[in-house]
Amino acid sequence: MNEKTQKYTVLFYTNYWVKAGLERVLTIILPELAKYYNVILATNASGTKEGFELPVQILHLQIDDEDKAKVPEVLLDIVKKNHVDLFAGNCNLMNYIYDVYEVLLENNIKTVAVNHEYFFAPSGSFYRYDIMEAREKVFSKLEATVWLTKLSTYLGNIIYGNAVLIPNPNSFEDDTLINKDTNIKTILCVGRFKDKNKRADRALMVFRKVIERVEDAKLIFVGQYDKEIKIFNKGQSINDLVERLEFPNSNSIMWEGEKTDVIPYYQKASVILVVSENEGFPMVLIEAAAKGCPGIIFEVPGLDDIINNGENGYIVPQGNIQEMADKICDLFENPEVLHSMQCKAVELAKRFSKTIIIQKWQRLIETVISGERKKLYENVELGVLESQAKTEYINAIKCIKSKLQKADVEKCSIQELCKLYEGLECLTIRRLNKYFLDEANKIKIYLIKELRRLPLDNPFKVIGIYGMGNHTENLLWQYKKLVGNIEAKIVFIDTFKPTFSERFLGYEVYNINDILTSKVEEIIISSVLYEKDMLQKVKKLYGEKFKIYRFYEYNNERLF
User: Fold this and answer.
1) Which end of the chain is more exposed for a tag (fewer CB within 10 A), N or C?
2) CB 168 within 8 A of CB 147
């Protein structure tokens, strides 16, 4: 406790500070908690870009994260200097956060992990294979793990024994009187559509089917967007897709960009769509609901905490474009049903009021700091979720098996796989968890093989890495972790940045047109979506001068 203020000090840490979902949640929670505690927010300097403004009573520190291996000690230093009583980590899909937790635990710092994603979010990716394993080693040692949905909390309690349910809060006042014009047929999508994971392409495909039945419908995107972003596995952009879908009226689709006030859009919209494959707890659903805008979503486990199917919205089987379009059309063609659903959406939002959620946070903080954390876990194990939890484990195992088969890591016949999956159904959740981790370990073996192809162990070579972003950062992190130290001299190559305009991860950056002056001998292309374009660029400029290493010639499953 801070002796001057007689308040507990709580430090929240996350890797980015931008205008996105997790950050929006913190901008609601932190000012409220600052009324009772000394609140510090620490974010990575490299990831802090035009984020939300915070009130002056919150100390916002930007930490040097150029070398991720040093982040744990940097955060420990902040914790000690500021007499922090509780550390809350918010970026649990980042590998290095688990090293942060270990260092804090060694120094007896009370620590909680706040998970803004679905329990199985790490399981669908090669490049996050180790997150589930890291959680297994670390989470059970923490004071608490916070989850957004009942299903994730149920699983967290079984596997780690310290799960606490705290959903995201709704910051909007509820509209008790809903009087929308049901003759206006507007579909709303709100989010960061610069992020391909938000699947603007799916919203467009749904809308194309909607206007076949409801010609005067409109689709509005609110949020940052990039219509040149490549669509998953197809190599085409959003602009390409719009052209291919041949919308009869181009004015029926509106890209509004980022807005400081989205309430008018929620108030006018008929329904809101969430079409992504993974979500933790989408703020837009409860915010829209507060303004009488029911959600129509693709099924994501746990989101039935928010949507009661057929009552205050619809939950559609994942990826079923036609069914989602039909649900929207049914509502547009039945104004009474739509109005009823809009009214019930408002009732939904009340369950997630800011007052209720902040009280949950206060209870967590006070209970953990006082040393009585076990009181938090009472009544968390909800047995009714056992069947759903088993299904999700088996689905996660199937997902890994599919990826291993596609990457030629292992071969199984359809009959063998069917027999295997039947056997999994009789296992307990703990046994399923162990089986899942064993399968994830096969991914590690495959990645080690891929990484050893790279010429990063030769101290006499200059290697150019073409690509600067999360893929590259994770590639180098995994190399150091799984193979060993990088002995070669590294320079980074970029298509747009001028030579020496900045450094990346401490290394020099060259423009692609200038690499002859860098003494580069071999090039590693580090990108999933743009690998082919980058390869063509190198070949066009330099022919066969450089030996090139690539990862996605035969398989576009992201590895790093």
Assistant:
1) N
2) no
pLDDT number for residue 280: 81
Report how far residue 553's alpha carbon sits from residue 532's, in angstroms, rounded to the nearest whole number: 8
* Strand 503-504, strand 507-511: pairing: antiparallel
For helices 429-451 and 129-138, the axis angle rounded to 10 degrees is 130
Pair of tokens at residue 352? 């997630």
Residue 247 predicted with pLDDT over 60: yes
Q: Which segments within 512-554 are labelled E, that is strand?
A: 522-525, 547-549
Residue 134 pLDDT exceeds 80: yes
Residues 6+ apart with CB under 8 A from 64: 45, 70, 74
Mean pLDDT score of the chain, rounded to an integer?
89
Q: Are 26 and 88 in contact (CB under 8 A)?
A: no
The angle formed by the CA atoms of residues 190, 346 and 201, to the nearest 5 degrees, is: 20
Q: DSSP H helical segments within 309-427, as ranges?
A: 321-332, 335-350, 354-369, 386-406, 414-424
Q: What is the pLDDT of residue 184?
A: 83
| pLDDT (0 to 100) of residue 233 | 55
Residues 6+ apart with CB under 8 A from 494: 466, 467, 468, 509, 510, 511, 512
DSSP secondary structure string, 167-199? PPPB-SPP-SS----TTS-EEEEES-BTSGGG-
391 contacts: CB under 8 Å, gap ≥ 6: none
Give the number of other CB atoms < 10 A from CB of residue 170: 24
C-alpha 143: how far from its chain's center?
23
Whole-angstrom Cα distance, residue 470 to residue 560?
8
Q: CB count, 10 Å around CB of 96?
A: 19
